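Changelog excerpt

This revision adds worked examples to the README so contributors can see how folded entries look when concatenated. The first example is reproduced verbatim below.
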Amino acid sequence: MSVKYFSITELDKTDGVITLYTSSDTTAWNYDDKKASENYLALSDQLGITPKDMVKSKQTHTDIVKIVTRQNGGDGILHPVDESQPYDGLITNEKNLLLCTVEADCVPVYFYDPIKKVIAMVHSGWKGTVKKISEVTIQKMKSKFGCLSENMLVAIGPHICKECYEVGQDVFEEFSKSFSSQELQKIFIPKNQEKFLLNLEEAIRVTLEENGVLASNIFSTGICTFHSQHKGFKFCSYRRTKSKTERMLTAIMIK
């Protein structure tokens, strides 16, 4: 068995990291899914590591980002993580430690500082985006590892696009608490008096650039989980399938 995955070209070509995102060909990645352990074992064989060299976030749409080390190996993979301590982002400076998040329309955000050799993997749904989890990640990379924003390379993985993501007035109001009126005009497209189309990628780009990441260092796969096909493969989308278990694995590792 092998796991079909794609990579973020702009990050992998630095030769400092390995990145990946899976297709709807393999969808079991949560600890309580019976097939997950088999999938992680197959993937680890392909990457030349073991499941003990992987860490998965405990996602509840927070803005909490956790620094992990080799001691966290297997968290969320070989054993469940503490339900009372959720986190939606992971940071490390250790080699051969795969940081994993899962998504089904939410935005995976990959961070790499090639100078300090620090990586982060972040799950940013609309709630995490409102809370600016990318800003939390940047600030923690700076304070804990001495990273500089201008050195960071950031990639935005497959997620539901602005043409497919319809939201209500309640979501708009939440964003209005964190973003300026000028920024809201870039992030939301009014559909009618009650509905909007939400551009999560633009909201994350705004946050990244406000925190000093260079626009030229922000990359995107341009893949929509709801409607896109990439090389014949589809991607996990809760809005399309309504599945509570099917997820896309997104990950990054320092070589």
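The second example, added in the same revision:
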Amino acid sequence: MNNMPKEKIAIVAVSRDCFPMTLSENRRKAVVKAYQDKYGEIYECPICVENEMDMRKALADITQAGCNALVVYLGNFGPETPETLLIKEFDGPAMVIAAAEETGDNLIQGRGDAYCGVLNASYNLKLRNLKAYIPEYPVGTAEECADMIHEFAPISRAIIGLNSLKIISFGPRPENFLACNAPIKQLYNLGVEIEENSELDLFEAFNNHGGDERIPQVVAEMEQELGAGNKKPEILAKLAQYELTLLDWVKEHKGSREYVTIAGKCWPAFQTQFGFVPCYVNSRLTQRGIPVSCEVDIYGALSEFIGTVISQDAVTLLDINNSVPADMYESEIKGKYDYTLKDTFMGFHCGNTASSKLSFCEMKYQLIMARSLPIEVTNGTLEGDIAPGDITFYRLQSTSDAKIRAYIAQGEVLPVATRSFGAIGVFAIPEMGRFYRHVLIEKNYPHHGAVAFGHFGKALYEVFKYVGVPVEEINFNQPKNMMYPTENPFA
């Protein structure tokens, strides 16, 4: 995939001056070997930090090596000031982990007290208003620390990506669509830039791409991807022209930022002026690592980007759309899968989901729009049932008063035919009914949710914490024995 940050992780060992430095150095080497044996490359800084001058040398070393993510490893108690200053001065995400004691036969000269050192490190981070990822249990053997670093990798990628992301949007939200309208202040707090444009600017750029010599090649790619599902061949040239317009806009407008996502317009005037709907093009760019949200959903585009970076795979953006009919539940779900009717719902959008995430696909027209417009201006959707498998439904959102919050819910797409239209699937999330009422409704989330294909809740939760979402505002689908604050105890 393009448009993806890559992490290069450095591990820097630290040592308290009243402990043997060799203890920290040898433990660092063991962690590096364990990581390389199991996961691949990690940069091992040869400088063990004992004081502030060592910190500067280590910082220069890992910067010279091109590292953009940092592991501060307490091989012994660690020097609380130099180790936290290293995190302060390093330009990138950081984590703190520590060495477990190795054997009961060596608890005099071989005892490192790193278990204690993490407490001082965390306190000093707070004093300096610094952020660092600290795992659930940050003290471990060399192999366990290697596993912790591996879990840090997608978290670090997301932070790196957000710090150099630009969201390009076209047009205001459509009328009667306030649900996806949120203040952009939190984007800047996250380190994200935004470029807001008129759809008239986009229309001009599209017209300027008329007759582009690259169009036939893009059409050929679309034909190959669609195969027998190419039911609207007459629209492919226009879709190719639009795809090239967006890709050129990204290239010309990303400016100083390295990564881009798009919040696009698709109605009410888009289809009548452009002569098509952009859904299929949105799906193709998303497949390539440039997520495109529908209906100028800026925080939807942001959420999609985070999920793409964490999963290193295509994501999608869907309406939390409709309930599963009771007769359909009785005949195709009940007794086959361990879900109640209220655990299920259908996730839908007109046709923006990548073909690789659909069980089958066909190029069609947008049925909802075609109810009031000529069919020929609504062509361009990619329809099909979403492929069954594990999913994570999630969203990072600003409230109307510019407060940041998020939700995460893990579940699955069931292998049940939807019998419907659009890009759509039958979703099942444990305790979805309660989550729908006491999180989605109670917390005023919009109807759009990002979908990552796999279970990525753990990494998403840590990313949301790292970027400053208050932990009480990271919502999830709570189990039966855990009540929501707004839940009626007598219900």
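Reviewer comment on example two: The longest strand covers residues 389-398. The chain has a mean pLDDT of 95.
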